[in-house]
Amino acid sequence: MYELENVLRPYAWGSTTAIAGLLGRPASGGPEAELWIGAHPDSPSVALSPAGKRAASGSGGAHAAVPDDGGRLALDELIDRDPEHYLGAESVAAFGPRLPFLLKVLAAESPLSLQVHPTPDQARAGFAREEAAGVDRSATERNYKDAFHKPEMIFALTPFEALCGFRPAAESRAVFQLLAADFALAGLELPPLVPQLLEDLAQPDGHNALRTAFERLIAGGTDVSEATAAIVAALVSGAPTAPYQAELSTVVTLHHAYPGDPGVLISLLLNRISLAPGEAVYLPAGNVHAYLHGLGIEVMASSDNVLRGGLTPKFVDVPELLKTVEFEAVAVPMLSPETTMLGQELFRPPFREFQLQRIVLAPGAEPVPLAQSGAAAILVVSGSVLLDSPKGDLQLGHGASAFLPAAEAPVNVHAVSGATGTALAFAVTTALKD
Ligand SMILES: [Zn+2]
To answer: Where are the domains of the chain?
Structure first.
């Protein structure tokens, strides 16, 4: 088992305090958006052997170049040395010689871009196409960073606000009807975009209704930006919003962050969700979503393939986006945990690359078997735990994380003797076995 040093991504939307607070360490002073725990080649964790751990004590943060000495090695390089040992034969057969999942701590202070992730076939084909065309992998117009899909899930540690998947067209139409009534009541001229959207959304075929409304908005242009500004001006000056307060206050917030961006009104086509701490949602390919605010544990297939659909100053490839969006109204894909032995919770989304175990250990509690098929990763967000495998022990304090090779299973997670507080940890492994 290897303790890990992980890379912090300082995206501008990140909270400056939430990740440091969760992990019990000093804040960097800048935004701390995502902590990546895994072997994605863009930001691999560093695996520390006992010697490397001593050398690193007191240091922290990201390391671009990792020397292959002193007991420190990038996790992807470690796995490359013996994939079957670290990942297990079954995982290598299913996903190839790479860690199939990525665990993140995500802290959104302001909204992330509206986005969609591709299916496995779309990712493979898109990556091959851009490679063949010689598009630089770091180019702004590059869509596919790797050849893999990126289904994901988010577990809320704090109240967590998000947009997730299309609502039924009739529900979105009702919001635009309310806005039309607000303009009439105030004697304001209705932007022509609104009656056009009402017509789009009235189509009896729900797929067509969502598709035409989405296409009209994502096309952008002055019609969209002027209508957005007029709607926000009406809302700010007190237009009635009931019963769509949450949706319409989100419109105002998004417009302030990204004035006139197509994503501002696209938000009204999507489910507006508020997760309570302990709740989780999963996001399959084709689901249009955006995280708005909150701290969570995010797990995904190890990929960085994102097609953006707005709420971003970054490149938006509309034709490619339209190929990947699923224009179907969906119920919010909430993920209920299975309660396993000793009261532990296991979140199993319908993807084979990952499952998430929430491990709670009160002082003196019985040890908990780690759910593990193939490799696993664990992060301690409260208290301390002792990992006990047939090959040895590893104690992890508050904020520490570790990589657990397949060959070192089974692992039991113990409360640390003498601990006074409850320990809380999150562990990820593949979902190859039932
Ligand atoms: Zn996403």
So the answer is: 2-163+275-313, 168-268, 338-429
Structure pTM? 0.93
**116 CA distance to ligand 1 middle (Å):** 6
Q: For residues 298 and 153, is the Cβ–Cβ distance under 8 A? A: yes
CA 284 / ligand 1 centre spacing (Å): 9
Q: Fold identical between 2-163+275-313 and 338-429?
A: yes
Give the tens place of pLDDT for each residue, 231-241.
999 999 999 99
pLDDT of residue 340: 79
Expressed in angstroms and rounded, the spacing between residue 117 Cα and the centre of ligand 1 is 6
Neighbours of ion ligand 1 (CB under 5 A): 115
Cα(190) to ligand 1 centroid in Å equals: 34
| Residue in 167, 308, 348, 358 annotated catalytic | 308
Burial 188-216 (b: 16+ CB within 10 A, else e): eebbebbebbbebbebeebeebbbbbbeb
pLDDT digits 0-9 by tens, 102-151: 999 999 999 999 999 999 999 999 999 999 999 998 898 899 999 999 99
**Which architecture does CATH list for 338-429?**
Sandwich (2.60)
Cα angle value 156/159/160 (rounded, 5°): 60
Catalytic-residue membership of 124: no
Pick the CATH number of 2-163+275-313 from 3.90.350.10, 2.60.120.10, 3.20.20.70, 3.30.530.20: 2.60.120.10
